[in-house]
Records
---
Amino acid sequence: MHWREWLTGALVDRWLADDRFDRLTLGERGSNPEYRIADDVRMAIDPLIDFAIGLLNASISALTFIGILWGVGGRLALGGFWVPAYMVVAALLYGSLASGATLWIGRTLPRRVAEKNEAEARFRFALTRLRENAEAVALLGGADDERRAARARLAELVARWRAVVWQSGRLTWIVHGNAVLVPVVPLLLATPKHLSGELSLGAVMQLAAAFVQVQMAIAWLVENWRALANWLASARRVVELAEAV
């Protein structure tokens, strides 16, 4: 709350100093400053506490269950070599691949979200400008022109929104595919040692449960990438405004 209060006050002071609010309208940089100050500042700060708590919980969970994988899983003979704590290695590799795929496929999502937010601001500004100039528009008979302008802004918003939806749809394959595979992978990895008699069925189930918990912790990035993209888009827009003023 204090952070948002300070940041909003600082941006307003800079925006109003030296007639920058007037000069800023002459270019594209820092467009729609009122939307950025009112909404983007809020969206750039509000989620940070939840992100911090979630990341802390994920880290503690990962460390706890990695210890179970290390102790119960033991080592595995692979091609004449012994792989120590092979279940830990497998969990970290699998989690890194899933997170890397998420980052690769969703790398453009923050930009798409920022473009959608900009279109939202332009559409809202067009409607606000119409309300503020309602008398002049009515006297000049400009309702049709304003209707076309509003529809053009709405079409731009819909197009950019669809781009966000399309990018989010691609991410869905990774998120849900990962959820389906996670319970299966540890069973496949533990099967050789179970068949050789090194692991009991109870130990296999314990490893599978610990593996899933570790993946849930590592997949924090995967599960929260959409929220992180929204936060990053708003944070970038705030930074752009701060640089522009």
Note: The chain has a mean pLDDT of 83.
---
Amino acid sequence: MREVVLWTKDGTYIGAAEDSDLFGTSYPWFCGGVKLADGSILAIMTEDRADESAMELVAFKLSGF
């Protein structure tokens, strides 16, 4: 549940990457994602702060691939 799985356009499996390797997160809940008009991907997740004082909404824009 903490991996981003990558596929080609024709459905061929490329591989998987851990959330910590891609985003520097420790235990996020992936909420959604969308491909933007410029071809980049917006990934949305929530994660508790390290001090557990709140849950944060975290968004990353992935581009350049």
Note: The helical segments are 19-23.
---
Amino acid sequence: MATFKGHGLRGSTLEEIINRTNECYELNGLALIQKIPTPITPVEMNSQKQITLAYFDSKSTVDYIGAVQGIPVCFDAKELKTDTFPLHNIHEHQIDFMEKFEKQGGISFIIAFYTHIGEMYYIPFRTIRMFWDRMLSGGRKSFRMEEIDKTFLIQRKGEYLCHYLEPLNLDLGTRE
């Protein structure tokens, strides 16, 4: 059984950026996107009532789901410390979900944040599927940043997806 211990801040920079951006989009009537909570059962809690050990109840699908001006979207958010994206960061049930979501007319994708250079990319499901199929046919079990279409770059260090984020002065550099 999978457990969760000691990784409480993993992915929190990207999640904060996405959550604030989604708030901005909602305030401006552009989109309604919600974070999907990971279903967990707490096992241990500290004296401040914070969960210190838990196990996953079931497989989660994606991190976010919603609609952008009437178009259904779902996506997962991944933070990376190097130029390589290990495909084990995506699970088969997530690939299946995103594929089914697209068959229903939605748009599925991954937002990849390369923390070491402060760049964020939109990677459409068709691209993820191509890398996934390559892995299944015996190819690489990862893909490199240079394999991603550069038109998918959505944010560079110091830039913001939404002006709402500018006063936060979020550090888009390396975060340990």
Note: The longest strand covers residues 71-80.
---
Amino acid sequence: MTQPNIVLPGPVQTALDLLETAGFEAFVVGGCTRDALLGDAPHDWDITTSALPEETLSVFSDYRTIETGLQHGTVAVLLDDMLLEITTYRVDGTYEDSRHPDAVTFTRSIDEDLARRDFTMNAIAYSPTRGYEDLYGGASDIEAHLIRCVGDPETRFTEDALRILRALRFSSVLGFSIEEHTAAAIHALKDRILYVAWERISAELLQLLCGRDVYRVLQDYRDVFAVILPELEPCFDFEQHNPWHIYDVYTHIAHSVAHIAPEPALRLAMLLHDIGKPETFFADEKGIGHFYGHPKRSARMAKDIVHRLKLSSAMQEEVCTLVEFHDYPVEATETVLLRRLHKFGPETFRHLLLVKRADCLAQNPDKTAEELDKLSTIEHMLDVLLKEEPVFRISDLAVGGGDLIALGMEPGPQIGALLEDVLDRVMAGKLPNDRDAILAEITNKGMTS
């Protein structure tokens, strides 16, 4: 593979020049070199150097520096509004917790520093003056779209179990395959993932789910996913015995994940939307499989999972709502659309329609054409309806609680209940959203008593 010169941002070039002028080696390293070789614009620029932390601080004494990672050799430097992390070459000690080195030793050797890194594609260093340091064939592996551990895979994953999920995440996001010995070590050491904090597991999982090759990774490494989400395992090879489904439950789930927009909440909702099916399976007298109540069962299981993953409260609620109501009926009528907008709100309702579409696309294509056409009609109707600023919230009504109190109602929950009734009648077209008309209806029917 021809290794091109990497065009560095001005502040990065300045940092390398200052370190080199002071007599030290300095390279950009890791993800930025990988991304540059892939033709992508790097988001972060990490610099590694032979300078010890105190020497780095001296080199950048005229700039603002932050010493938060000094024990690991990292100094953050602010150059022209760009915050750069500059880390001394180091050798990691033992990893007693399967996650963090117990100690690090600084070294003057770039070769020793690269030897501690996770994958060959992340162990490439580059300097405009010194060229590439690529001891493990990372550039060739990038060209071959291959993820390979630096050195012995079992050693790398035993040191830091998060690397297992990082490998799967890179495979999904980049569309790279995983080298056979690296893949074998992932399967063999999968249980070590539970040494990793749930916040880190969650972050890797959500990025992985949004990858372009998520279907393949979910299928090829389903045993790994069962470690962090054991609720998935009963879905493996669970035949549905239903003419609407040509896949087992887990394969249907994996297809549905790939069929929805790559947004974390949507992808996670699809991963969890049918996990309650094995527990609710029922075969009728003709042998046709049914899963009565599986959305609610799946939602209860999803609630435990999103809590375990330590997601934000808003994301937990969104995912569980999409799972619970993924089978909720929606008809192509204005009244039904307004009621669904009232129940879910515009954003969640749009997401629910996307969930329904992904669910259909992962079923029997001979059965779902009509449902997919119906969803397209509903989505178009929703777009038109929302442009008209329709009434679907109590706050949209031409009357409020103060108006009802003025009519003689006592403050309390009955006011909210009455407004809900009025809103339902307005959405159904039985009552105009006009203040005088609504108050007259309430008075004439004695609804305030």
Note: The CA atoms of residues 197 and 268 lie 19 Å apart.
